[in-house]
């Protein structure tokens, strides 16, 4: 198999890897390092002349921009989901000195350098914030090595043209030849503060010479990308500098403190074979299921449906509480007397240390309010010039006051009245065990977006679990998951997920709903549970003697509340001109299929005339069990797109999951959707964790989207029954259509299950360039 050097007709016998079907690590060399001009008969020294044969390649370098990503270090850029294959923008630059005047972005500039003479050269890079300059020993990207850099922490920076501030900025002398070209790569990361710039200078190795910026006369493109779609990435070089599988990427992964990253049996329990339904069908007596919190036909004011959605309790702890984010949202400790008051053995006056801490805090606040932090040479120059006269006046006042410094050696005695605070190191206090979970309720607290799922007590679980399976055949190995929906008036509903051993051999999974009925059901309850009467051929279940005893709780099997483990799930997503995100979504769906081998899901993409990629071809190339592509013209309309996608589903007894494009799915997402969707009874609105700028699933900083209902699972028949999406009112806008749909779902008599789902993330992105937005053309230089 042959490969070609970009922009030429050169071939050789090396074999590049096939285009990666999904995003993620791939071979770090997409180019052919052994290619020579003229095929096998060419000479190695002729290789750099390729660029000179293509005039449009001269005087420019490839520039890839990765927007909306926080942090000032290059290692932050490497953590970007789309780096290096799917930048926000692909363009060119005329010299190696760039200053976009923007914030929270990363740059990757690559191409070839053409030396103007033979000899030893030194390179230097200057930037605000960090940057790295990589140079190859020839024209092959795979031979690139780090030559110079500015900082590693994101706090280091230089002024424009300041090429000698750090020793790391200047490379060692490198022998170059004018008859050759050399592949280079420049990485730059800018945060949201200070000025932004990056430039590379070079000089012949003579100490007396100054560095000069490398301009258009000495650079050329790696390849011409002007006619390529954004999801065409086979030509993009991956090197040690940029390859996601390189040692640099792995070495710079910080150990994160989120408890949710720890493994949990819930995450993979769907892989355990399910228990045969006939084994547990008659273990519990059947009973009507009619909870009191259902608000069917109840008048709900506009957008007030979320006030009628209650949270479920979970056992064991799933560690969805974002303890690592409680420095920003202290919802557990907000003005709580349990937290603020302490009973001490000593006196109740504040400790001196606490007073000192308060003083230090106030002084730091004052320091922050003194003025803006100087973050670049340019700002420092402006500040110094504007405050020079004021500074002189302050110096004169200080001389007149003749204050004595704390570190003055001219005064041998302490000032009168000087008292040092004493610290009582032996002071103790009494404290009682505090569980803040007991202070929470099952209503949806919109103020607290870092709290996890409500915790269910172990004693309550133990009372329910032993009677839910035939103990003569099965042995309980582990309680994997229990979810409780509380109804103090009629009875609690539980979802039990147990790992059982069948006769001490095969391990099986029990995942069924049970009901603890607080009193005997009324006749109309049974009628409501079966409005059409018993199914043909079905026998009326005989009540247990226990069910006759009024007032005694009964553990029973709720009628018409069983979920289907193999029901089809349709993911419906409307898109428009979001190539990198569309490709990411398709890749995630392909990975989901690879991890689960589940063929019972379908991807429906409704494309509003995207012109940055061929969405249909991307679906064809992906390894998906099934997909549907629907093309629409005109402006992006989320409600209309979702409705159009659902309309393509013919089977009313399948589930539609209204989805967003920027979602990271856990492997158990299909199982989670199926468990919490029951036709005619239950819909599912999982709570997603919205990642902060610069965060990723491996480093999940962010908060739970407690008031968003845009991710919604419901049976197609129920979706049609409530009227579908409101396409008239939300024609040219989105935001609020999910709450409006929720109002109608609740009024139809459905419950909405609301749980925080582990490892379920919404990627950070800005609204810039999305959907129907138009971008202003930048001013010409």
Report on this model:
- With 781 residues, the protein is of the alpha+beta class.
- The chain has 3 domains: 3-251, Sandwich (Jelly Rolls); 265-293 and 440-531 and 543-558, no CATH class; 305-309 and 566-762, Spore Coat Polysaccharide Biosynthesis Protein SpsA, Chain A, CATH 3.90.550.
- The strands form 8 sheets. Strands 3, 4, 6, 8, 9, 11 and 14 form a 7-stranded antiparallel β-sheet that branches.
- A hairpin with a 3-residue loop joins strand 21 and strand 22.
- The longest helix is centred in the middle third of the chain and has 25 residues, at 377-401.
- The radius of gyration is 33 Å and the shape is globular.
- Mean pLDDT is 80; it is low at 1-52, 338-392, 394-410 and 521-550.
- Residues 395-405 have a biased composition (Acidic residues).
- It catalyses: an N-acetyl-beta-D-glucosaminyl derivative + UDP-N-acetyl-alpha-D-galactosamine = an N-acetyl-beta-D-galactosaminyl-(1->4)-N-acetyl-beta-D-glucosaminyl derivative + UDP + H(+).
- Residues 56-218 form the PA14 domain.
- Belongs to the chondroitin N-acetylgalactosaminyltransferase family.
- Residues 382-408, 524-544 are annotated as: Disordered.
Task: Give a brief description.
This protein has three domains: 3-251, Sandwich (Jelly Rolls); 265-293 and 440-531 and 543-558, no CATH class; 305-309 and 566-762, Spore Coat Polysaccharide Biosynthesis Protein SpsA, Chain A.
């Amino acid at each position: 198999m042959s490969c070609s050097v970009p922009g030429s007709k050169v071939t050789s016998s090396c074999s590049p890897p096939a285009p990666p079907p999904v995003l993620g690590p791939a071979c770090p060399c997409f180019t052919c390092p052994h290619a020579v001009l003229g095929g096998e008969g060419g000479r190695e020294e002729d290789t750099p002349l390729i660029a000179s044969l293509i005039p449009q390649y001269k005087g420019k370098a490839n520039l890839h921009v990765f927007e909306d990503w926080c942090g000032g270090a290059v290692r932050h850029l490497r953590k970007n989901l789309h780096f290096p294959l799917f930048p926000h923008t692909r363009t060119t630059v005329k010299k190696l000195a760039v200053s976009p005047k923007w914030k929270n972005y990363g740059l990757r500039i690559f191409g070839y350098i053409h030396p103007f003479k033979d000899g030893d050269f030194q390179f230097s890079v200057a930037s605000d914030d960090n940057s790295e300059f990589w140079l190859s020993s020839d024209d092959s990207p795979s031979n690139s090595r780090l030559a110079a850099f500015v900082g590693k922490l994101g706090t280091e920076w230089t002024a424009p043209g300041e090429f000698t501030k750090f020793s790391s900025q200047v490379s060692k002398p490198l022998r170059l030849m004018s008859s050759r070209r050399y592949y280079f790569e420049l990485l730059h990361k800018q945060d949201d503060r200070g000025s932004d710039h990056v430039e590379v200078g070079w000089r012949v190795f003579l100490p007396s010479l100054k560095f000069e910026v490398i301009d258009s006369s000495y650079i050329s493109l790696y390849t011409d990308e002007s006619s390529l779609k954004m999801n065409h990435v086979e030509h993009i070089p991956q090197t040690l500098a940029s390859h996601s599988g390189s040692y640099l990427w792995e070495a710079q992964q910080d150990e994160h403190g989120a408890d949710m990253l720890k493994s949990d049996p819930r995450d993979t329990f769907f892989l355990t074979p399910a228990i045969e339904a006939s084994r547990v069908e008659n273990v519990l007596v059947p009973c009507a299921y009619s909870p009191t919190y259902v608000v069917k036909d109840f008048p709900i004011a506009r957008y007030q449906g979320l006030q009628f959605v209650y949270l479920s309790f979970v056992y064991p702890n799933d560690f969805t509480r974002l303890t690592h984010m409680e420095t920003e949202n202290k919802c557990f400790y907000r003005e709580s007397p349990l937290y603020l008051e302490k009973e001490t053995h000593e006196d109740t006056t504040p400790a001196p240390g606490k007073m000192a801490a308060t003083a230090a805090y106030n002084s730091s606040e004052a320091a922050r309010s003194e003025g803006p932090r100087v973050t670049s040479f340019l700002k420092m120059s402006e500040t110094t010039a504007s405050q020079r006269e004021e500074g002189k006046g302050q110096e004169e006042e200080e001389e007149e006051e003749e204050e004595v410094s704390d570190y003055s050696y001219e005064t041998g005695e302490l000032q009168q009245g000087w008292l040092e605070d004493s610290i009582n190191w032996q002071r103790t206090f009494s404290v009682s065990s505090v569980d803040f979970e007991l202070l929470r309720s099952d209503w949806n607290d919109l103020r607290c977006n870092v709290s996890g799922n409500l915790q269910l007590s172990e004693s309550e679980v133990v009372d329910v679990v032993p009677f839910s399976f035939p103990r003569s055949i099965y042995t309980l190995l582990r309680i994997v998951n229990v979810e409780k929906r509380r109804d103090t008036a009629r009875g609690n509903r539980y979802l039990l997920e147990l790992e059982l051993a069948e006769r001490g051999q095969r391990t099986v999974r029990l995942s069924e709903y049970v009901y603890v009925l607080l009193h005997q059901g009324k006749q109309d309850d049974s009628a409501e549970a079966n409005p059409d009467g018993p199914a043909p051929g079905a026998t009326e279940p005989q009540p247990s003697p226990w069910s006759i005893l009024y007032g005694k709780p009964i553990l029973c099997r709720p009628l018409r509340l069983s979920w289907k483990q193999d029901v089809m799930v349709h993911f419906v997503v409307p898109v428009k001109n979001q190539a990198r995100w569309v490709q990411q979504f398709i890749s995630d769906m392909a990975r989901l299929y690879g991890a689960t081998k589940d063929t019972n899901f379908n991807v429906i993409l409704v494309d509003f005339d995207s012109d940055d990629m061929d969405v249909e071809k991307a679906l064809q190339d992906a390894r998906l069990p099934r997909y549907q592509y629907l093309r629409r013209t005109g402006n992006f309309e989320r409600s209309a797109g979702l409705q159009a996608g659902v309309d393509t589903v013919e089977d009313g007894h399948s589930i539609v999951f209204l989805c967003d494009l920027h979602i990271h799915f856990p492997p158990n997402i299909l199982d989670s959707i199926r468990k919490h969707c029951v036709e005619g009874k239950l819909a599912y609105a999982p709570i997603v964790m919205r990642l902060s700028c610069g965060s990723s699933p491996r480093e999940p900083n962010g908060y739970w989207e407690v008031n968003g209902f845009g991710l919604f699972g419901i049976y197609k028949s129920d979706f049609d029954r409530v009227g579908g999406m409101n396409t008239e009112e939300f024609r040219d806008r989105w935001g609020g259509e999910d709450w409006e749909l929720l109002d109608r779902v609740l009024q139809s008599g459905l419950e909405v299950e609301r749980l925080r789902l582990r490892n379920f993330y919404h990627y950070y992105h800005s609204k810039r360039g999305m959907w129907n937005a138009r971008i202003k053309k930048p001013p010409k230089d």
